[in-house]
Write a structure and sequence with these properties.
By secondary structure, this protein is mainly alpha-helical. The chain contains two helices and no strands. Helix content is 84%, strand content 0%. It is elongated and about 75 Å long.
Length: 63
């Protein structure tokens, strides 16, 4: 186990290596996430409508 002072020095050295994203990168990533979430929601809504219609058709034939 390293001594506490050495641990703190190593931790600070590692923290100094962090590269934070720019505001533009954050905005673009956020917009991309929202667009992908919307597309996914639309896709699953369409799949749900198709499955529901298919099941209703089957049930109306056999029911």
């Amino acid at each position: 186990m390293a001594n506490p002072i050495q641990f703190i020095q190593q931790t600070r050295a590692e923290i100094a290596k962090i590269v934070w994203p720019t505001r533009r990168e954050v905005v673009l990533t956020t917009v991309t996430v929202f667009i992908m979430a919307a597309l996914t929601a639309v896709f699953f809504a369409l799949v749900d409508i198709l499955i529901r219609g298919g099941l209703q058709g089957l049930l109306s034939i056999f029911g």
